[in-house]
Amino acid sequence: MKQAFLGTLNWTMNKTVLVSIGITFFSLSLQAMTPEKLAKRISDNQAGFAQCLSELAVKAKEAGVSDERIRDEIPSLSFVKRVIELDSSQPEFVTTFPNYFSKRVNDWRINKGREMLVKHKDFLRELTKTYGIPGHYLLSFWGLETNFGGYKGKMSTLDSLATLACDYRRSDYFTNELLLALKLMDSQGLSKQNMQGSWAGAMGHTQFMPTAYTNYAIDGDGDDQIDLWNSEKDALASAANFLWKLGWKPGLRWGREVILPNNFDFTQANKQYRSLNEWSDMGIAKTDGSSLGNLDIPAKLLVPAGHKGPAFIAYHNFKIILRWNNSEFYGIAVGQLATQIAGGVGLSKPLPELPRYSIAEMANMQRALNKSGFDVGGADGIIGPSTRAGIREFQAANGLIADGFPSPETLNAIMGADRN
Question: How far apart are CA 314 and CA 321, in angstroms?
Fold first, then answer.
């Protein structure tokens, strides 16, 4: 298998994901944008786009993009209003783990993944031998990113990247991605017409940004070209190479669902890694009731939907999954989908019904926690580590199960304390 490395730059993730234990908020935009501000942002970008392209041509020359590529591509790049609209969008509601998980780990993906496991059996075995990544994990990433190639995105990669490179918010990052995309056209014979993907520039079966394409994409089918759009083998081999380079440990699973003992101390969840034998000593067991084992393997306990939902033990390779997409929800979905593609069973504990909180409600809760002396930082509506810690401290101080999850009972108690 040809190891066609295309560069040495570090890969910057194409997704900024802000994560909570029970709720995750997905957005590339860090602040809500009013319609008026959005309209001005679009107008300013349109007005300055031609000048920006001239500046990009200079930067492309300095970065070593060929004169022919600069001449043929940069003047024809288009501003895409929809890209700015999507970059500015912010969901009104947070997403719960049950909602997220049930939409991604479903019968269709499991069955399709098993079909692909048969289709690519020999090739996946070769990848596992070379890189140490079991095939069902590669299929899980593929399934979650593009439905096994069913939807790879339909927006022009170059136009999307140019639009974002000429925008004020993350110009340096997207300028670098655009220049690398132009270089890929030369090195891999790619055309603008065929380079389509997500609005943020992610490409192909595995949704690699140009930096990832440059650093980790390899030729899997032996045709001396790397094509992540049309070659399933190139995409799977590149995913294996990427995970291997990130530090995947062969022979170690991602983690597993576990059962917790009665009266478990939930302040131990979602915090530091402990050895597996320590978790066993606390009474945590496999879902069939058998012991986790007395092994000195670092593991972290995850309770993504509060104490009423399923619990998971996550190992080293879970951290590697998060390097692909830094969301615990995503990591659990990848791991569990991989487990079930390989023939494992589904969750033993039903997903609980959880309230649909708005970003505004969570911001009000954060303000109330701060006012009550539980410092969670800014009131942005994002339930990150600081907010989880504040919720947990409030729960412990008020006789509630301290799982760091804003259940209706916990939320009512926080807001009630604020009113008193």
Answer: 11
Of 31, 15, 24, nearest in space to 379 by CA:
31
C-beta separation of 238 from 216 below 8 A: yes
pLDDT at 420: 67
- How is residue 349 written in tokens? 């504990």
Residue 6 has pLDDT above 70, yes or no: no
- What span, in angstroms and rounded, lies between the C-alpha atoms of 247 and 132? 10
Q: What is the pLDDT of residue 8?
A: 28
Give residue for tokens 């056209």: 185
Query: Mind giving me the DSSP string for 80-109?
Result: -HHHHHHHH---SB-EEHHHHHHHHS-HHH
For range 197-209, the mean pLDDT: 97
Mean pLDDT of 68-93: 93
How many Cβ atoms sit within 10 Å of the Cβ of residue 244?
Answer: 17
pLDDT tens column, 254-293 = 999 999 999 999 999 987 899 999 999 999 999 999 999 8
| Chain segment 330-347, per-residue pLDDT in tens | 999 999 999 999 999 999
**Residue 136: helix, strand or coil by DSSP?**
helix
Helix (H) or strand (E) holding 52: helix 35-63
C-beta of residue 259 within 8 angstroms of C-beta of residue 285:
yes
C-alpha–C-alpha distance, residues 211 and 189, integer Å: 17
Radius of gyration of the chain (CA): 23
Closest CA to 93 of 414, 366, 292, 356: 356
What is the β-pairing status of strands 298-302 and 311-314? antiparallel
Using the structure block, give the residue that is written with the tokens 């500046």.
55
Q: The tokens 């809500």 sit on which residue?
A: 32
CB 102 within 8 A of CB 178: no
Alpha-carbon 34 to chain mean position: 26
**Helices and strands: H and E segment counts in the chain:** 17, 10
| 209-to-124, 213, 314, 332, 365 alpha-carbon distances in Å | 23, 6, 27, 23, 36
